[in-house]
Amino acid sequence: MQTPAVWLAFSSTRLLLIVIGYVVLTLFPANPVESWQGIVFQNNWIDGWVRWDSMWYEAIVNPTPRFLPSGHSSANFFPLYSWVSWLVSLPLRALLDHERAFYVGGLIVSAVALVAGLKAVSRLATNLAGAEVAVRTVWLIAVFPFSFFLTAVYADALYFCLAAWSLALAYERRWRTACVLATMAAMTRIPGLALFPAIVLEYLRRNDFDLRSLRKEIPSLLILAATPLLIAGYNEWRYGDPLAFLHARQQGWNRASGFAALQRDYNYFLRGSLLSCDGLGDCLREFEPTRTLLGYWYVALVPASLALVIYASRTLGVGLTVWAVASIAMALVNGLDGTGRFTSVLFPVFIGMAMLLRTRTAFLAACAFFTPFLILFFAQFARWKQVL
Question: If DSSP codes are grouped into helix, strand and coil, which group holds residue 290?
């Protein structure tokens, strides 16, 4: 029952977004205000999926990228998604130039990763909470207002897939494979490091928290321990600095951290009027009301996500709970910006929501509430508005 639910949730929501992207870009063409905000495809069916960070992922495998702002570094982005997309793009170069081939390859990688990730979540949720909860979880992820990032040229879908399978296999006691996937997740996005304590604690829980039991899995621990060295080695090879990621965020990207970042983003997202537009068309043309809506979503998502994980913690177990909480904490260090995108991959939150929405009426009401925001936020993203 779970596999049809995965395909139905994926195909129906992605088809809806593809149509929305085409209609919005046709009626309200994108009007980038910066020279680096390029229109990659002269095709409204797919161009809206290639925005913002998409250009940075392409820059990792392109020595002469066209669409980048000055004064920033691609060291802010981890490389695995770019490498996989580049590999997938190689056969496409018979029909497309290298740049467009990469973006089509990225779209393929994201779509396949989302389906695979949903299958892992369905499998894990079924084992933990039953088939009905698993089906509801898959749909809630698919209609979540920020789930469009999971099929854009962004690393989030690949990270979601690797994290979901890593934890699913850890719960099935396939520790070494779980650790290999966790390492790959950490090479995709920095929050992948939160998988490490999650897997170790889940292992200890299944061995009565006997530290001596870790001796049985020395190879698994070595795989995890090697990950920071791999990341540092890549940064040294590519940028001549093993800590290039941190330096890029602090200097080139000028990102604050901690309370200063939270305060800055709070003021930025919530300084506008929530009802400053007249009708949907006006909201799509102007970013101000949507930015305020984003701010309310971002502020609400943090406590709501933590509450859902805590509510479901007995069912989730220590591994999923620790990964979700640690991921939220890591995201908050960098402020509220991107909270929706970071939440979209935290499937334990959606398992908790699916457990809470026990009746069909409550579940359908949640989906009906999510869907208009999914449409609005993707429409803004497709038009180069700052939905990050």
Answer: helix
